[in-house]
Every structure is written in structure tokens, then in C-alpha cells.
Amino acid sequence: MNQNLNKSGEHENFEKMKWWCGTVVIGAVPLLIRFAFYFFSNFEIDILAIPEIVCFGFGIQISVIFSNIQAMQIKKNTTNYLLTTISVVFIIIFSIFYALSLIVPSPLNNFNSSLFLLIVCLISLFIGHVSVKNAIIDIIDDQEQSILEGKV
Do residues 118 and 50 touch, judged by C-beta distance below 8 A? Predict the structure, then answer.
């Protein structure tokens, strides 16, 4: 039994690493490219821009919603519903700022708005990590239960 716990812990860590590499790192590529151009080129661009931050936030929250939907098919609990609702609220915030940046770019202070969105993204990333971790644990628990019951 202890060996199964060790394997489930390894599986959980592997799934979390997949989320970090597949969602967070890949989602941050536009931000990293912008930082590279800002620091290493002669182009005069802002270090932060709303579209890149919004895309990063969307990527995180869409993956969170997907993970929670998978987990809710296995185990219906209020935590997954709450975290999915929070993700929807983040998507609404990102959408509002993105729309404002397209409609009225001059009145919107680009740096302050981008900084605010970056802070929202970091909060979103923390909640996303917790949410995906909970979903992974629910899915792994269900798989282990199925194995113990001989369903697999």
C-alpha cells in the first residue's frame, strides 16, 4: 500500500509538472519574447502589454476550467465549482481589459493597466495551481479507487 502512495505522489507531481510546462511556460512565451525585445533590441516597446498578459491569463484559466470539468465528472464537490466560478470571473476581468485596450487605448494607462493585469495573473496563477492540484488529486483518487475495486 505504501508503494501505491509513493506512485500516486509521483503521478501527481508528474501531472502538475505537465500543467506548469504545458500551460504556464508555453503561455508565458509571448511575455518572454516581449521582455527579450525590450531588453536586447533597439526597438522601443513597452515592457508590458495588455494583449500578452491577457493571453497568458486566458491560458491559465481555460486550463483550470478544463481540469475542474474533468474532476467534476468524477467527484462533484463545491471546491471544484467554486474554483471554476473564480476562473470565469478572471476571464471576465481579462476580457474587459482586453476590450478596453482595443476600443480606447489612449485613455487607458498602458503601464498601470498592464501592471494591474500582471498582478491579477499572478493571483490567477496561484489559484490555478491550487485548482489544478485539487483536480489532479480527485482524478488520481478515482483511478486508484477503480483499481482497488477491480474496475480497471
Answer: no
- Residue 71 burial by Cβ neighbours in a 10 Å radius (0-12, 13-18, 19+): buried
Per-residue pLDDT of 77-135, as tens digits, reads 788 888 899 999 999 999 998 898 888 766 566 778 888 888 999 999 999 888 888 88
Nearest to 28 by CA among 112, 118, 147, 143: 118
| Distance of alpha carbon 16 from alpha carbon 28, whole angstroms | 17
Q: What is the pLDDT of residues 56-75, one digit of tens each?
A: 999 999 999 988 888 888 77
> SS3 string of 62-129?
HHHHHHHHHHHHHCCCHHHHHHHHHHHHHHHHHHHHHHHHHHCCCCCCHHHHHHHHHHHHHHHHHHHH
The contacts of residue 46 (CB under 8 Å, 6+ apart) are 38, 110, 111, 114
